[in-house]
Design goal:
A hairpin with a 6-residue loop joins β1 and β2. Helices cover 28% and strands 27% of the residues. The strands form 3 sheets. It has a 5-stranded antiparallel β-sheet. Strands 12-11-10-9-13 form a 5-stranded antiparallel β-sheet. The chain has 4 domains: 65 residues, no CATH class; 74 residues, GMP Synthetase, Chain A, domain 3 (2-Layer Sandwich); 45 residues, no CATH class; 42 residues, no CATH class.
């Protein structure tokens, strides 16, 4: 018996920027087709965003579930109805949590396509004992309920917004997994350590600090640290400011201030370079 030709497509779900890979067999699909797939949450309606491709791009140990079928008009109608009901469900869940005095801020609700399960996502500062709330919601919604707590960065990703750069938030646009951002990354850019200005909508350090970190490290190679003592043209100065993108710096002492290029500084200045270890003095021979 001839083996069925299996291909792979990337599927994206409503209100999610990350796409997931599914296998396709016996179906002809193209980008923008609506499909029904089975995920960990249950049956869901998604949209094909790339493919079909002969390779999945995933490792051999990663499970790839199949596309069940092309979505019908009934599936699309059920999805629209679920979205409307989910908005009401989020509001009702918030009201019930407030009645019980629970510190929970519900930010989204999603039904599976077959309405068999609802996922309620909430923000909270600490762990919440929601057992009593779960009983109330189960009696009200009459389906399986998944209460899921997320952090402030996840909320920003889900809600979206405009960053200080004037563009859509990176987390809601393309970031799939959050990585650690440290204050040292701001120091590498010689930024003023004003936490309010260095923080994003979520209250954490801006993700773009991590994106730019390697570039700034490369640009600062071989340069002295800020406020280092520098000998230039026979005089001693302090390096008081430096712009590695524009390639210039400012040297100051009691008598004068100089604005020179970083190229001139490296060529004619004498200084201890960043990361340079002090040279050991040679011991006098006995």
């Amino acid at each position: 018996m001839e083996e069925t030709n299996v291909q792979y497509v990337a599927v994206r779900f409503p209100r999610m920027n990350k796409s997931y890979t599914f296998s396709v067999s016996g179906l002809t699909l193209k980008v923008k087709d609506k499909v029904v797939v089975e995920t960990k949450r249950g049956l869901e309606l998604g949209e094909v965003v790339s493919g079909p491709n002969p390779e999945s791009g995933l490792s051999a140990d990663q499970e790839v579930k199949p596309v069940i079928r092309l979505a019908t008009k009934e599936d699309e109608e059920a999805s629209r109805r679920n979205l409307a009901e989910a908005r009401d469900a989020r509001r009702e869940a918030q009201e019930e949590a407030d009645k019980l005095g629970l510190n929970m801020n519900f930010i989204s609700a999603d039904y599976t396509l077959d309405h068999a399960k609802i996922t309620l996502i909430y923000l909270a500062d600490s762990r919440v004992d929601f057992r009593e709330l779960l009983k109330v919601l189960a009696a009200h919604f009459r389906c399986r309920i998944d209460l899921r707590q997320v952090g402030a960065r996840d909320k920003a990703k889900m809600v979206g917004g405009i960053g200080v750069c004037g563009r859509e938030l990176c987390c809601s646009k393309f970031i799939n997994e959050f990585e650690r951002v440290s204050i040292n990354m701001a120091k590498n850019q010689l930024l003023a350590l004003n936490i309010a200005k260095l923080s994003g909508h979520c209250g954490s350090l801006l993700c773009c600090l991590r994106f730019e970190d390697e570039a700034y490290k490369e640009l600062r190679k071989g340069l002295p640290k800020l406020n280092s003592r520098v000998e230039y043209n026979g005089e001693m100065y302090h390096l008081t400011s430096m712009n590695v993108l524009e390639g210039n710096c400012k040297l100051e002492n009691r008598d004068s201030a100089l604005f020179i290029t970083l190229e001139e500084l490296q060529k004619n200045g004498k200084f201890k370079r960043a990361g340079e270890q002090p040279k050991e003095e040679k011991k006098a021979e006995a």
